[in-house]
Amino acid sequence: MSNARIHYLVNRFMEGACSGEERQELAEWVNQSESDTGIQAVLEEAWRNYEPAEVDRQSGAAAMDRVYARLSEETDRSRHRIAWWKPAAAAAVLLLAGLGIWQGTKSPATPIAQAQQDNTEDAMPGGEKAVLTLSNGRQIVLDSAADGLLAQQGGATVNKLSNGQLVYDDGEGPGAGEVMYNTMSTPRGGQYRLTLPDGTKAWLNSASSITFPTAFVENTRSINITGEVYLEVARDEKKPFTVKANGVEIAVLGTHFNVNAYPEEGSVRTTLIEGKVKVSSAAGARTIAPGEQVQAGAGKLDVRRNVNLEEVTGWKKGRFVFEGASITHVMHQLSRWYDMEMDDIDPVDDRFYLDVPRSKKLSDVLKALELTGKVKFKIEGKKIIVMK
């Protein structure tokens, strides 16, 4: 790879503008580099030229201070080569570590690192898995079903595409207009995509479900969800679209938004990406604009503004994105995706900043978290144990 290309990719990464393909290209360069000297020089130059917005400097300062302090602690004990890294370069390296692509640091083996070396207990990432339950109760395991026509539901045909997506075609054949209800559900460690009869697109995160009619014949379109679902609603001003989740109702015409309704999260969080939605519950109603989030729980509705949309929708793009996340929130996401159990977690006075692919093994993600936080982890069978 040419020097110009390397500098371009690193600068793109520092600005948060890397595409998935560019991240992979950058990862391959880092992992295939014969020495750390060249990597260090590129990162130092990129950091010197990096001029984040004031809000980014403020929010990232504390995280970077913790990062360098952690690296310094490891250096004092192990006397490894990170001793001569400048603070800015160390922070940049940890940003790469956050992507799970930095493998040059040889700090003392943690429980996770040692487990990885010994090829012992670990967990592989989830994948495209879901079950479709038809109106008559018949269940179709989608990840093992052949591509093509799966079922006829009223006037709608149910087809599985070669890219793993399920599509409902609301046709005019026998049974047209007949309303049947189907449910798609994903297990822990699963995710799936669905196109509803009206053209609305839905992405289901792990341990989630969506129940919907096979034809929208009424004056409104209504679905029920559990877990976490991202929706791109097909616009139809004559038929408003409604999402129901755990006592919360979200009304839209045509928009893109994410709904997190996992019971263990303590509230239903609706985050708007594009358009406008109205969120209602027993506590009242709120209309939000793009970049805002409504948290409905404990008998109230709270609105958060300037939400980090990359963090909210990272799962849909195949990434874990944590920007100041609590250890409990982090463990909830990891346990669902890797189908693991969580050990009882004592409060940890720290926040986690990380951006890693969900395609990584569990041990890789935990190892990156150990670098950016004040905890260590151990995998025992199907359980993740958090240690201070």
Give a concise summary.
Helix content is 29%, strand content 32%. The protein has helices at 3-14, 20-32, 36-49, 54-78, 87-98, 111-118, 309-313, 327-337, 362-372; strands spanning 127-128, 131-133, 139-141, 148-153, 156-160, 165-170, 181-185, 190-195, 201-204, 209-213, 221-232, 241-245, 248-252, 256-261, 268-274, 277-281, 284-288, 293-297, 300-304, 319-325, 341-342, 352-357, 376-380, 383-387.
Total strands: the figure is 24
Query: Which whole number gives the mean pLDDT?
Result: 79
Uncertain segments of ≥5 residues (pLDDT<50)?
Answer: 52-91, 98-120
Measured as a percent range, the helix fraction is 25-40%
The profile of the biggest β sheet is:
19 strands, mixed
Category by helix and strand content: alpha+beta
Radius of gyration: 23 Å
Q: Overall 3D geometry?
A: globular
Oligomer designation: single chain
Number of helices in the DSSP assignment: 9
Q: Estimate what percentage of residues fall within beta strands.
A: 25-35%
Terminal-residue CA separation: 41 Å
Model description:
The longest helix has 25 residues, at 54-78. The relative contact order is 0.10. The protein is globular, with a radius of gyration of 23 Å. It is built from nine helices and 24 strands. The chain starts with a helix and ends with a strand. It has a 19-stranded mixed β-sheet that branches. Strands 21-24-23 form a three-stranded mixed β-sheet. The chain has a two-stranded antiparallel sheet with strand order 20-22. It has helices at 3-14, 20-32, 36-49, 54-78, 87-98, 111-118, 309-313, 327-337, 362-372; strands at 127-128, 131-133, 139-141, 148-153, 156-160, 165-170, 181-185, 190-195, 201-204, 209-213, 221-232, 241-245, 248-252, 256-261, 268-274, 277-281, 284-288, 293-297, 300-304, 319-325, 341-342, 352-357, 376-380, 383-387. Helix 1 packs across helix 2 (20-32) and helix 4 packs across helix 5 (87-98). The protein is α+β, with helices and mostly antiparallel strands.
